[in-house]
Write a structure and sequence with these properties.
Layout lengths: L1 H42 L2 E10 L6 E9 L2 E9 L4 E8 L38 E5 L5 E7 L17 E5 L16 E6 L3
Antiparallel strand pairs: 1-2, 1-8, 2-3, 3-6, 4-5, 4-7, 7-8
Length: 195
């Protein structure tokens, strides 16, 4: 009988110990899963800001611009109306100040790396604001999408941070060679990039 009690007590202690170990392992697995989920959330974080364009230089050019940052890349999506049919230049300028009637309060092209003006991606150099040209249809409407890993939204790197800058649409075409701005003509639409 004593042997039976000792055996039962031993089994009870073993079961209790195994239960504690199982709980401990379950807690560790749960903590690991939470850490993994947090890492996944950080990797998939998306920053999005949107703005309305306002007409400048007595134009009727309006539009919407959205910047989305995801996985280290910023995508600019824009729609415009009120343009003359054909090509127009679009740039990011150095100041988010659209107060001047002709848009000149935005300053020159955003050029934090002190490069010459040029076509985006060329070896000779280009401004971080040198987006390029887009085409308006016969009704004066246009859509543009541009992506780069050389921009960020609100980061600490001033050579990448687009916040505090402005989007400018020009009446003419960027020739990619004239310094410092591509001879793109009047500034006909503007918005400040403010977070």
């Amino acid at each position: 009988m004593k042997l039976l009690k000792i055996t039962a007590l031993s089994l009870l202690l073993m079961a209790s110990y195994n239960c504690k170990e199982a709980k401990k392992e379950a807690k560790e697995v749960s903590e690991e899963m939470e850490e993994t989920m947090e890492e996944m959330k950080e990797e998939v974080s998306v920053e999005k800001i949107a703005f309305s364009m306002e007409p400048k230089s007595d134009s009727n050019v309006a539009g919407e611009v959205t910047f989305t940052e995801e996985n280290g890349k910023v995508t600019m999506t824009a729609t415009f109306s009120g343009l003359t049919p054909g090509e127009h230049a679009i740039h990011i300028h150095e100041k988010a100040d659209c107060s001047a009637a002709d848009g000149t309060s935005t300053g020159g092209h955003w050029n934090p790396t002190a490069e010459p003006h040029g076509k985006w991606g060329i070896e000779a150099g280009y401004h971080r604001g040198d987006i390029g040209n887009f085409t308006a249809d016969a009704d004066g409407n246009a859509t543009l999408e541009f992506s780069t890993d050389l921009w960020c939204i609100g980061c600490d790197d001033e050579t990448m941070n687009i916040v505090g800058k402005a989007v400018i649409v020009h009446q003419g075409v960027d020739d990619f060679t004239s310094q410092p701005s591509g001879a793109a003509g009047a500034r006909i639409s503007c918005t400040g990039i403010i977070q």
